[in-house]
Amino acid sequence: xxxxxxxxxxxxxxxxxxxxxxxxxxxxxxxxxxxxxxxxxxxxxxxxxxxxxxxxxxxxxxxxxxxxxxxxxxxxxxxxxxxxxxxxxxxxxxxxxxxxxxxxxxxxxxxxxxxxxxxxxxxxxxxxxxxxxxxxxxxxxxxxxxxxxxxxxxxxxxxxxxxxxxxxxxxxxxxxxxxxxxxxxxxxxxxxxxxxxxxxxxxxxxxxxxxxxxxxxxxxxxx
Length: 223
Fold this sequence. Notes:
- The chain has helices at 13-24, 31-41, 44-54, 61-72, 90-101, 117-125, 165-178, 180-187, 201-214; strands spanning 2-6, 27-30, 81-84, 109-114, 127-130, 136-138, 157-158, 192-196.
- By secondary structure, it is an alpha/beta fold.
- The strands form 2 sheets. A 5-stranded parallel sheet has the order 2-3-1-4-8, with helices on both faces.
- Strand 5 and strand 6 form a beta hairpin.
- Helix 2 (31-41) packs across helix 4 (61-72) and helix 3 (44-54) runs antiparallel to helix 4.
- The two termini are 16 Å apart.
């Protein structure tokens, strides 16, 4: 299974990807996690990314693509992987296609998670993240056992600045302007699978697994 998860901020891409990883042991490649890991490990790409971020500049495609390609070259991505947060632009999508073609791989499906903007606003404003291990939580659906304390590592759990309500609308506008064209790009190739993710994780997983099986897309359980 080689899929891309598309959806607006707060549509639940990370939650669905984590569930697929837990159930089927499929590599989950999150662009946000890649940035954090590379910056923390002070890799050459991480240092480049940090230089741009520290100046308040956008990280160029070449750096982002380099991180993704490096991760996709790992053994656990040879057959199965899911991309979350990448590609974001048509240029990135084209680079991804060309890179995968070099190893006779291709994207098998692009899952578009559909959630009304009103629900996205609520979900994002309730999101919390651990500052130490980056584990995600929700005040409603996945609260910490102890308020403000990470269940996994005991680190501090906070609300990110860009998850606050006053910034959510701006993030949604950016998504619709910049990322939505990707859906049309993949729709023209017959790769789009639309999944309603407004009813919770369990119905979403059932619908998604059925849709993947209908397309004869292979995915394996944990070994």
